[in-house]
Automatic annotation (TrEMBL):
It holds the Pfam family Tll0287-like. It comes from Sulfuritalea hydrogenivorans sk43H. Keywords: Signal. This is Cytochrome c family protein. The keyword Signal applies.
């Protein structure tokens, strides 16, 4: 009996000590911080590289530098970081799972209904992880590589079709949601 009580107490204690909602809001803050580290850095790198060597020359920023920086932030923080999209360019790493897909669809609906795309985010515990996604809105700068296919520079088209034969990530206009940055951590 004593043993049983002890087991019951250790099961209940962690939940009693930290109210679930307080814990969740700390995780939400942390996840948001991790997710918002990468996009501004990428944006600056893209701007610089486009200015120096044109959109075709800036493709490595999105192709190589983005995943490399995501990997570095993962190592520093312990959060896994991805970028996923309903219309993926890189079908090896940007296909959303069910949870991400549901969030992406919800964000598209809400943006179409007038919500500011830059504010759309979702964070919650899923199984034994905390997961968070934040929408990445299309800005003017993105259009040189994600705009309507027939408006891309031929040099950009050439590089894209060489690396991404299944590219679905064109045809966007400003204000649409290109995808999400998705972060997760085991609890
Ligand atoms: C210079 C060209 C270029 C510009 C400008 C650009 N991208 Fe990309 N984008 C790419 C390439 C190439 C990939 C594929 C990266 C990879 O291989 O993982 C990509 C992938 C992505 C992905 C990952 C999902 C997927 O479809 O593979 C997101 C999200 C994304 N871009 C958002 C943006 C946003 C938002 C902007 C504007 C702020 C932007 N991109 C500007 C070239 C560009």
């Amino acid at each position: 009996m004593k043993k049983l009580l002890f087991v019951a107490a250790t099961l209940i204690a962690p939940f009693a000590a930290t109210p679930a909602h307080a814990n969740d809001s700390a995780l939400l803050d942390e996840a948001r911080k991790v997710a918002t580290t990468l996009p501004p850095k990428l944006l600056v790198a893209l701007q610089e590289e486009i200015r120096k060597s044109g959109a075709e020359g800036a493709i490595p920023v999105c192709k190589d530098m983005a995943p490399k920086m995501a990997g570095e932030i993962s190592q520093q923080t312990g959060w896994k970081i991805k970028r996923v999209s309903l219309k993926a360019r890189n079908d090896a790493r940007a296909i959303p799972d069910e949870w991400e897909k549901a969030a992406l669809e919800d964000f598209d609906k809400r943006a179409a209904a007038g919500e500011a795309p830059g504010k759309l985010e979702k964070g919650e515990k899923v199984g034994n992880e905390y997961r968070f996604v934040k929408a990445l809105p299309v800005q003017g700068l993105c259009l040189s590589c994600h705009g309507p296919a027939d408006q891309l520079k031929p040099a950009v088209q050439a590089v894209l079709s060489q690396h991404y034969p299944n590219d679905k990530a064109t045809g966007y206009s400003e204000g649409q949601i290109r995808g999400v940055i998705s972060v997760r951590k085991g609890l």
